Amino acid sequence: MALPGVRLFDMNTTITGDSLLIREARADDLAAIIGIDDQVTNIAKPEYWRDMFTQYELNREHRFFLVADEYAKVVGFIIGEVRAWEFGSAPCGWVFAIGVDPARRQSQVASRMLAALCDQFAQAGVTKVRTMTSRQDHVLLSFFRSQGLMAGPYQQLEKDLS
Amino acid sequence: MKLQRATLLGLYAIIELADQPDLQLSRSEIARKFDVSSNHLSKVMRELGKAGLVEAVRGVGGGYRFCGNARRTTLLDIIQIFEDFRFDSPDQREPGMGTEIGKALDLVLGEINESINSTLRSISLATMLMLKNRRQAVPSEQSTGDSSIQSSRPGQLS
User: Fold this and answer.
1) Sheet holding A92-100, edge to edge
2) pLDDT (tens digit per residue) in A70-89
3) What are the residue ranges spanned by the domains of chain B?
4) Residue B77, Cα to own-chain centre: how many angstroms?
5) What percent of chain A is predicted at pLDDT more than 90?
6) For B127, which residue in chain A has the nearest alpha carbon?
7) pLDDT for B135 beyond 90
8) CATH no. for B5-137
9) Which CATH superfamily is domain A20-146 in?
10) Where are chain A's structural domains?
11) Is the pLDDT of residue B31 over 60?
12) Minimal Cα distance from A151: which residue of B?
C-alpha cells in the first residue's frame, strides 16, 4: 500500500518488477542519490544535491523529484521541471537529471522513472518533454532515443570565454 | 547525407528481420517489399550474414532470420558494414587544409560529423522498430503506409 503522498507506479510493463516503487524524493533519500551520482559521474557533489532538493521543496508545483525505490532502497532518481518561455519555448517539461545505480541498469528502472515523470508533466498540463545530453554520452543518448525522444528544433551553442 | 543503395537495402532488410526475429523471410519476400531485385539483395544479405546479424535457414520455408541483438546494434554498425563511413576531419594533405580558412572549415565540418556520428550511434535497431511501430499507430501522420510482411508488434521499451 502506498504511503500518503507516495504514488505507486502503475504503468503496464513487459518485465517483472512489481517491487519497484516510483515515488517522490524525501530528504532521507539524499545520501543514496548522492552516492548513485558519485558512482555514475565519479564526481561527488553533495552540496549540489542538497541544494537541488531544497529548490525542489520550494517549488513542488513545477518541479518533480522522483526516486525508484526497491524494497526501501533507492536505486535511481530523476528530476524534471516545467519551464515556460525559456529560449522562446512554449511550456514544456525538462528532464535535467537522471541516474540509476549501475548494478540495476538494464532493468527498466530509468524507463519507469521517465514514464512516471512524463506522467507528472502531462498532469501539469504540458505536452512535450525535452532534455539535453552530451553527444559523447552514448549510453544516455541511446536511452533517451529508446524512449522515443528525437532531436528537437533548438540547437545548443557555446564558446570559450578565455 | 546520402547513403549508398546497398547500405539502404542492408538497413531495410535488417530492420524488417529484427521486427520478426522468430520468423525467417526469404530474399524474394524482402526484395518484393522494398521493390528491389532479389539479386541485388543477395550480396547485401551475405554481408549481413558475415557480420553475424542474420543467419540463412535452408530448406522448405527457409530464408533469413535475425540473430543479432536489436538493442545493441546501432544504425552506425549497419552502415559501416557496407561503406567506409568515417567521421574524420578532411585529409590534412588536401590543398588548403593547412590555411586558416581550411582550419576554420575543418571546425564546422567536424561539428557536422560529430552530430551525425552521435545520432547514428545512439539509435539502435530496437529504437528504429519502436519509431516504425509508432508511425504505424498514428494514422493521421503522413507515412509510407508500409506494413510488415507478417505483422507488427508494439515496441518494447528498454
Assistant:
1) A20-24, A63-70, A73-83, A92-100, A129-131
2) 989 999 999 999 999 989 99
3) 5-137
4) 8
5) 75
6) A146
7) no
8) 1.10.10.10
9) Gcn5-related N-acetyltransferase (GNAT) (3.40.630.30)
10) 20-146
11) yes
12) B119
